[in-house]
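Table S2 (text version). Query chain:
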Amino acid sequence: MVAAKRLLKNFWTKNYSVHEIFFKNLKKSQVYSYLKKQHFIEYEIIKKNFLIQYCEKYPVGYMLKYQNRSIGFLGTLFSIRSIKNKKKLFCNIHSWLVDINHRIASQLLFKKILNKCIITVLTARPGLTRTFKEMGFKSFQMKYRILCLINFSYFFNDKKNTSINMNKSWILKKIKKKNIRIYNEHTHEKFIKFIVYDNKKKKDYSFVVGKIVKKKKFFKVLNIIYADNEVFFRKNWKAIQTSILSRFKIFFCGHYFLKNKDSLLPKISFFSKSVERKIFIKNVPKDFKFNTLYSEIDL
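Corresponding structure-token output:
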């Protein structure tokens, strides 16, 4: 029975082909016209993702064709990241869609990347667990904690303990080489990059990358997606929250993480809320430190 299914699948998939799509060829390709026809996706959101280019030499997506007709698309965000001083190729999947009559060939879209890089899927549709596990992905529960910056501790904090500097030249002179890459590659207008430092010991600081997003269209949240000196950030959070509130006029902060010990924000029962989402990662390295850098989260 298994052999028969494999033979049937091979019979069908031989008529399909996968094509790399690069940003410079987007308008010439059939991507835009294909995506516009899809009724179950938000076209404008995917279109915005195309404007993010962390590594220009890699594709922004792959098109699945059947007899030269577009019937599927995989949206990708490639990046080079450092793990224990070794460069690793990452690919974050922001969209995956195939016409219903051709779902038998949907996994072909992963063929060119499946065993060549670390793949993350942070916004998977419900019900795809079995499909991803068939391709060797591991599932994780990604947690999101949102915290109100005005709480009891806010009124008793020394508001002069920390300061924020957003000057580009000052930051680039101060941060580590790996963080210079992160700074230069996160050029999208929604990214906020700054250094928060101790006013008494300016050598003690944390380089932070965040995004200001709207939640439920009512209030703004500063999502902290990366902080290079996590010990400093957690230790000085009470002072940092007042600096953030003062500098950005933001009343809420959020953070994505996998393990509770990795959360940058404290859990304050009355002033914080946590939600979870299932994500998938393929080829997980041993020393992998999760964050939402180089992804489409909240863009």
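Notes on Table S2: Residues 41 and 187 are 25 Å apart (CA to CA). The radius of gyration is 21 Å.
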